[in-house]
Amino acid sequence: MNKKLTKELPNLIRGEIKFNEFLSKHTSFRIGGPADAWIYPKDISDIKNILTFCNSYNIPVTTIGRGTNVLISDKGIRGVVLNLEQGLCEIRVKADSVICGTGALLSRVLKQAAKEELTGLESAAGIPGTVGGAVCMNAGTKEIRNIEYVSIGNLVESVKVIDMNGNVSELGKEGLCFGYRKSNLSEYIIVEVELKLKRGKEKEINDRISRLLEHKKSTQVLDIPSAGCIFKNPDGHFAGRLIDDAGLKGLVIGDAQVSMKHANFIVNNGNASAQDVLELIRKIKKQVFEKTDIKLEEEIKIIGV
Q1: How many H helices and E strands in the chain?
Q2: DSSP secondary structure code for residue 123 in this structure
Q3: Is pTM beyond 0.70 here?
Q4: Cβ–Cβ contacts within 10 Å for residue 276, how many?
Q5: Which of 84, 112, 127, 235 is the most buried (most CB within 10 A)?
Q6: pLDDT tens across 56-67, in order?
Q7: d(CA 7, CA 260)
Q8: How many CB atoms lie within 10 A of CB 231?
Q9: Residue 243 near residue 230, CB atoms below 8 Å
């Protein structure tokens, strides 16, 4: 670890810093080695000061939200890891828009939108991450029971970002590019998002949310540590079905297992390592390709040393 991190950085910011913080505490997989420094910035000023400091000493900076769509290396992440849940989590409503800090939980934003009788975000029900993470990966849920599929990128009106040099700017629709589980925002730190919604009725909105949550409860793994869907759905196919058809449901390596409930989930049965999960991923990709000629692509982010 760069000694300047422990000696100088705490004097430059107001947010909380934890050194040698194990990231297994901060991911839904409950997997991941230590970060040199885990920081909760208080505000944009903190983020800019961190970036200036880290750029001066060539210290890498990584941003992690709720940790629900990532696999962190067993050796952890070198440098600084930012989490914006404590300092940038405000939610406010302006006419038909919800404006929220990147660290706000998507579940809180959805609840606030429903209370204000704003519709359009219901397909985000059950997605456990933060707004920033959801927008960066263009999260969404497939259509079920007449609930329209909407990727969150379709709702984004504007995004306030900081580049890695500490410059703050706002990107409107013309500056944004969203695709299937991706965007052009990965090189930025997202600090605020404006979502454009429509007027609706609170009861109907909450009914749609309830139906979607019930569907996810019955079909997805919610009671064992996981990172959600491991692979993207190839065109015209469902990754889970391909994995199941390849006879891989229930496959175990170490304490990592292909879920018996949903084959596109890998679960941590207690003490799974990142290496266990990576070996499962490699085996799944190999066997699905041999059986179908289809190459599966990871949806989760694999981060670290």
Answers
A1: 7, 19
A2: G
A3: yes
A4: 21
A5: 84
A6: 999 999 999 999
A7: 48
A8: 23
A9: no
Query: 230: closest CA among 293, 274, 271, 190?
Result: 274
Question: Could you read off the pLDDT of 1-21 as tens digits, one per residue?
Answer: 777 888 899 999 999 999 999
pLDDT at 217: 86
- Could you please report the per-residue DSSP string of 165-234? TS-EEEEEGGG--EETTEES-TTSEEEEEEEE-EE--HHHHHHHHHHHHHHHHHHS--SS-EEEE-BPPP
b/e per residue, 123-140, with b = 16+ CB within 10 A? bbbbbbbbbbbbbbbbbb
Residue ranges and CATH numbers for the domains of the chain are 3-82 (3.30.43.10), 91-218 (3.30.465.10), 222-303 (3.90.78.10)
Query: Three-state DSSP class for 253?
Result: strand
Name the residue among 106, 81, 84 with its Cα closest to residue 23.
81
> Taking Cα atoms as reference points, which of 74, 69, 76 lies closest to residue 34?
76
* Cα gap 204→210, rounded to integer Å: 10
Q: How confident is the model at residue 128 (pLDDT cuts 50, 70, 90)?
A: confident
Q: Mind listing the pLDDT tens digit for each residue in 217-268?
A: 888 888 899 999 999 999 999 999 999 999 999 999 999 999 999 999 999 9
From the number of C-beta atoms within 10 Å of its C-beta (0-12, 13-18, 19+), residue 146 rates as exposed
**Structural tokens at position 101:** 């800090």
